[in-house]
Amino acid sequence: MSLPVVRRLRRPGRTGGLVPACLLLVIGLAVSLLMAGTLADTRRRQAEERMDRHLEAARLAVTGEVYRRAEILGHLAASVGAQQDLTAQDFEALTFRLAFRGMPGITDVGYVVSVPDAQVQAVQRAWRRKGSANLSLRPVGAAEHRFVVLDRSLDTVSPALGSDLMAAAEPAEALDAARAGGQVTASRAYVLLRDRMLPAARQQTSFLLVAPVYGAGDAPDAGLLRGWLVMGVRGGDFIDGTLRQVSQGLVGVTLSDASVPGGERRIAAVRAGEPLADARLHREVTVDVAGRTWRLRVVPAAGFASAADARLHLVVLAGGVVISVLLAGLVVVLGTSRARALAHVEQATATLKADIARRRRVEARLRERETELERFAAVAAHDLKSPLTVIAGYSELVEDQLAESAGAQVSGWLQRIRGGTGRMQRLIDDLLAYAAAGDASLEPAEVDLERLVADIVMDRTAHLRHDRPNVEIGRLPVVTADPVRLRQVMDNLIGNAVKYVRHGTVAQIDVSAERDGPMWRVTVADRGIGIAPDQRDAVFTAFGRARGSEGYPGTGLGLAICRRIVGHHGGEIHAEENAGGGTRFVFTLPVVPGLPGRDALAEDGAGGDPGDGSGGDHGGDPGGGPMYSAPGPDRR
Fold first, then answer.
1. At 61, is the secondary structure helix, strand, or coil?
2. Rounded CA gap, 362 and 50, in Å?
3. What DSSP string describes 398-437?
4. CA gap 633, 636 in Å, rounded
5. Which of 215, 439, 512, 545 has the most CB atoms lying inside 10 A of its own CB?
6. For 338, what's the count of Cα atoms within 13 Å in the CB-facing half-sphere?
7. Which residues lie below 8 Å from residue 540, measured CB to CB, with a gap of 6+?
8. What is the 3-state secondary structure of 169-227?
9. With b meaning 16 or more CB within 10 Å and e meaning fewer, what string describes 153-165?
10. Using alpha carbons only, what angle is made at residue 363 by residues 357 and 366, rounded to the nearest 5 degrees?
């Protein structure tokens, strides 16, 4: 589009963009209001459902724990009634395991008998003879008394032994209700008699569970009421141990006795922070427990719904309004600035093209520089070999001439010269190999990897008589690669495996291969000194050597050469930990479809004619023993 046309299109856009912008703004505001209202309703329903679950969990916890205590008390009452002549020792044995039941809130369990006022002293003497030596009955009033004659205390407060339960209306009423109903009954909420001596701050609203005790068996009073078993339960400890986990710090729970004449009496509560004022989330339910009606209230605390959740619908509404306004403004801007946008696009495109061209020029210069450096390294290394050869030759001539007359110091100097020239020659050879590995053209051919590895092992073990390495060669395929370069890779890896072993140990090498889709995975595993995980990639860089290899001679170019050659073939090479110790070097080569020979390792048999050197021991010990190879020049 030409520039005059662009300018003609901009004029109607300045006014034509207002109508779509206003329409978009109205639609956006309506959608925002709808989404905010829907989200608020959804959050409120979810909160109400959560409160219902908390209420049900609290109800089940309270009824379950009270039923558990009532059931245990009923079993104890039956056991006590089965005793022909109950003694204090019998009572101790029957109630022994109560301390290990893990029931929070229980203060004690006592055996209560009804005693007329005229028989108080006689009953006291009788129970003392039965083992309750510390019994001292403390009657209240002048009518019938109901004394605790046996008691097992489960806390540190003084026991209720000898107390007259007629001193309070709540336990007396519960005893009568249990006798009338013949089952475990709960008292109204009150402060236990044994707790009324405590400071007011330590007193808790509590309740009694009462179970009637009837004679059983062949006893003369079989079926008649002997007394009662009473279990004191402190409300605060009971609620804290029962409902603390149910509350989870998100809701407050209050338990009240709704059967108190004239109103309710709170038993205990679990606090969870400042309660929320939203009455729609408050929950309560009545619970019938052991003949009493309790009321359970659950109120959400401040942590029940975070401030972000409570205001989420407002955030959504505000966000919708902001987005709608921004979109409307964007429509106006787009409608009035189409030409400017096209100009910016053209400018950005031109800048991008210039940047791409500049990057290509830089990359071309970098490639030229890299090529020049590689050529320089190759020429320099090649030119350095001639003087080194001269130095090595003349040092040998000097040593021959002075073989008889030279002293130990002169011989040492000549050996150092030969050693230095040898190391320099190896470094130059590796530099030439490193430079050639990156840019030399490949001459691919079919290579029998088994025969290649066997030849390398034979070259390295033929001259050894002692400490011959143990080399295990698996079934290896026929691959397509440059034979000279591939031999260099295998020779470097096997040479490393032979060389980098702990002093005093024999090298163990395992060469194997497997097919992985379109690639062959060739593995050379050793049991040597290993490579730290943080250096397994650095050893493939030029002159990179692993920690612990300082005492071994080498130039640090061998693995870098391997990486270049493998990469030039289209594969990859890496190092990993060997499960039995040492290192596993793994490199890949592409699979050539339809390659004759062993192109699949899943076939049966060893592969190759036993007489052609490609199978069997692969050129190892003629006696059929383990395969060995000798230490060679450093390649790591």
1. helix
2. 65
3. HHHHTTTT--HHHHHHHHHHHHHHHHHHHHHHHHHHHHHH
4. 9
5. 545
6. 16
7. 559, 560, 562, 563, 573, 574, 575
8. HHHHHHHHHHHHHCCCEECCCECCHHHCCCCHHHCCCEEEEEEEEEECCCCCCECCEEE
9. bbeebebbbbbbb
10. 145
CA torsion sign for 571, 576, 579, 582 is: positive
Instruction: Tell me the one-letter amino acid at 465.
Output: R
Distance between CA atoms of residues 182 and 293, nearest Å: 18
Q: How far is CA 407 from CA 205, 395, 400, 418, in A?
A: 108, 15, 13, 17
Helix (H, G, I), strand (E, B) or coil at 589: strand
Q: Which fold has domain 83-300?
A: Beta-Lactamase (3.30.450)
Q: What is the pLDDT of residues 422-472, one digit of tens each?
A: 667 666 766 666 666 666 678 889 999 999 999 988 887 777 677 778 888
What is the distance between the alpha carbons of residues 72 and 98, in angstroms, rounded to a whole number?
9
CA torsion angle for 455, 456, 461, 467 (degrees, to 10)? -140
Under DSSP, the state recorded for 600 is -
Which pLDDT score, from 0 to 100, does residue 571 have?
A: 92
Mean pLDDT, range 175-187, rounded to an integer: 91
Residue type, 418: R
Q: Which two tokens stand for residue 112?
A: 């209560």
The strand pairing partners of 587, in sequence order, are 522, 573
Residues 6+ apart with CB under 8 A from 525: 497, 509, 510, 511, 512, 578, 582, 583, 584, 585
Is 441-636 assigned to CATH 3.30.565.10? Answer: yes
Break the chain into its structural domains and give their ranges: 83-300, 356-420, 441-636
**Rounded distance between C-alpha atoms, residue 483 and residue 457, angstroms:** 16
CA pair distance 32, 41, nearest whole angstrom: 14
pLDDT tens digits, one per residue of 232-247: 998 888 888 888 777 7
Stretch 494-517: mean pLDDT, rounded?
87
Task: Provide the pairing of β-strand 508-516 with 470-473.
Answer: parallel
| Measured distance CA(631)–CA(327) in Å, rounded | 75
Name residues whose C-beta falls within 8 Å of residue 316's C-beta, 6 or more positions apart in sequence. 32, 35, 36, 39
Q: Rounded CA gap, 132 and 136, in Å?
A: 9
Residues 213-226 as b/e (b if ≥16 CB within 10 A, e otherwise) read bbbbeebeeeeebb
